[in-house]
């Protein structure tokens, strides 16, 4: 049976790579983001897909998108990768930009989940994208890391509340070479290409478990750091301050 999958944030980066990966496997795709032109170009590239532009910060926009998608039947999967990112120190970020990042990254995940869950078949899959940046408060993470910590918590809560009717998953990527990470002025360990990240997501979502995280050589170290007592963990993270 062909999976019907809604991808939010499909216009660029990991989202576009994920659309390409699932299209090669014959999935029936619904592509969403704010940019209709980019979505239409991607749909043409992969041999066709339903293009439904919308904005995760706009509940009315999501409601209209959900109505269009519902007309085609139930979804097997719904995945959101929409995010904003600005590196730098917390006290240096513009407050309006910080509010925008929270709105897209955290509230946007909440909005997407609320729109997508009613569209899923029983046992269908909802995947929220966090980040290894949400594991622990690291220097230069600004408000981005805090939003991703919130997404992790939100996914954990929804997993508990919605099982077994909805298979809630958490995607936690490390550094991936995208338009967002181009802003970084530091060497990114274990940097991955979007296509490799997409392959890891496809494989992980096909398997069991709650969280899929990659690349393991980076994520395991950060998971270990998260388990340390605060005095030791903060002593280590302070060494990263520029």
UniProtKB/TrEMBL annotation:
Gene3D superfamilies: NAD(P)-binding Rossmann-like Domain. GO terms for molecular function: oxidoreductase activity. It comes from the Bacteria. Keywords: Oxidoreductase. One of its GO terms (cellular component) is membrane. Pfam families: adh_short. The keyword Oxidoreductase applies. InterPro entries: NAD(P)-bd_dom_sf, Sc_DH/Rdtase_CS, SDR_fam. The keyword Hydrolase does not apply. Belongs to the short-chain dehydrogenases/reductases (SDR) family. This is Short-chain dehydrogenase.
